[in-house]
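new request in #modeling-help
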Amino acid sequence: MNKNISLAFYKCKKEKRPALLTYTVAGDNSKIKSLEILKSISKYTDICEIGFAHNTPIADGGQIQTSTHRALKNGTKIKDVFQIVKKFKKFINSKPVILMGYYNIICQYGENKFINSCKNSGVDGLIVVDLPYPENKYFAKKCRKRRISFIQLIAPTTSDNRMKKIIKDSHNMIYYISMLSTTGGKLKVSTKEILKNYYKIKKINKSKNLVIGFGITLETISALKKTDGLVVGSALCKEISKSLSNGQNPVTNVSRMVKKLKNKIL
Amino acid sequence: MKIKKNVPLIDQHNKFGFWGEKFGGSFIPETLKKPVEDLTILFQKLRKDKNFIRERDYYFKNWVGAPTPFIKLENLTRHLGGAQIWAKVVSEANGGAHKIYNATVHCLIAKKAGKKYIVGDTGAGYAGKMLSMAAKKFGLKCKIFMGAKDIKRQKPNCDAMKKNGAEIVPVYTGSQTLIDAVSECMRYWVSNCDTTHMCVGSTVGPNIFVKICGWSTSQISRELAVQIKKEFGSVPKKLKLFNCVGGGSSSFGFWNEFMHYDKKQVEFIGVEAGGPKNSKKHAAPLTENSKIGVLHGAMQYVVQDAEGQIEETESISAGLDYSGVSPLHCFLKDTKRARYTSATDEEALSAYKLVSSLESISPSLEPSHAFAEAIKIAPNFRKNTIFCVNSCGDSYKDKDIIKSRLGKYIR
């Protein structure tokens, strides 16, 4: 099991607050800038999710698609993603890194080679959006062997029986998708409803760190602060887009937003 | 890798949905697992349900218009002086193409599932047009996702969709063609899977959609098998079935009933879109030996770069302009049951011109690719060899493109 991820959650629990997880795309809006963003948000965030771009994403909404598109357009390759992670992890204030993306990129790179590169660059966890349970069992095992957390997802549509199986085979972190939506959708269920599902999952195994993602913004985050962790992605991607169109530095703007998010959950 | 006898090809996958252990599967986000599972269970139940089959056959016969004609192309045969050339005129089906079978079945399933909304993707606009027709017929609200580029080049079908009361959602991402339409449609379903049924327009996508579509279009070869036996007394000793292959729904449906014949007797020839003559771009992943990868929830041969980014394709025919291809065709290629080749835009245009000027039928640019290959090799055969081409679309929808390329539209 990956220690860095467990430790990050442990620290937050001691501070009686949820972990803040941020999602940005490697190479957005450039390789250098995306690294700078990671370094500057590191002060406030607890775990960095880093997206590796795929041009045919079937579960991402407009904001992340735009970020992905920018990353690909400026020539970000998978080897650059690992470089960015490596450089970030050398940084003194770095945080645990979870790579997130689609299976075809891993498949073309080679599963074993991909896990090796993760290990060598310091990746702590992996989320593969389109490799669901139980198809992901074999790959998840390979990750576990190398102490990389494979993060299972649970959705509002996941049946109780399936949920139990997923949790049983999960590593130290589970990701609950708050609603039926692609990333970046407007929160269309009440936070009460989300929390109800959250506790249902939590009840099955209390020891797993359960984070909630999709629809989390400055407006919605504080209502969910009694949880293990919260993921903000599209709001940050949107902030990068906004900064660029206003001719402002995305690094300072994203950093400011992450600081605000953090303050909301303290 | 081998094809099993006595088991329908659509069922020859393992428990994870892979044909030949490597093509297909269901690479989907967790949110879609449940709706896909529900659909899988429902479809398994329905296809064994005699009442459902009766209902399907009723609509196929009385609404779609089964069987579509099987005719000899006398003039073309004489002109080429080789093999006998026949056509299965699937474009005579209600709506003008084979897409009506899949659309009808999906609407029937949506009704059984208690869904009020149906969404679908479309490239050439046929899948969208047929889904809008079927949705209207069965009282479902319909949304069609279509690339902005395709909306421009397939106006007649767009007009038809609107007339049927469907909403066309233009897709501006990526290459603005079928591939982006499918992605966007899947994203929409992720967000609305509780109320909405999704129809994937071809034998592509997660396993269950490949199966439903293949099961539906197989109507074509069921009819053909009867028509051939009636015409020739039995299946001829040398029969070649030509079909264009984009996603692969018409070709699979055209071949399915003949799957168990030896390929020396019944050969399957799939013709992909080779793109413009002088372009490196194409939409022929099988012919060009593209690598295996994941696209739209399934493992398949797909046009992609070394990193796994899906590459843009290029073809004059919107219906074939797709980077991937059905896992069923990948399976048929690797088991060598079918042979795949490609025809260029120019070859397809000349084939369209030749067939339309000699015969009473006028194939759209998609089947014109299949005709191109048949025309090319027919002179090498004698008249005891029977060529049958699936004319799965009518040229009317392509009249603007044809006019701009050839100066005039003939039919």
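bot summary: Residues 30-47 of chain B form the longest helix (18 residues).
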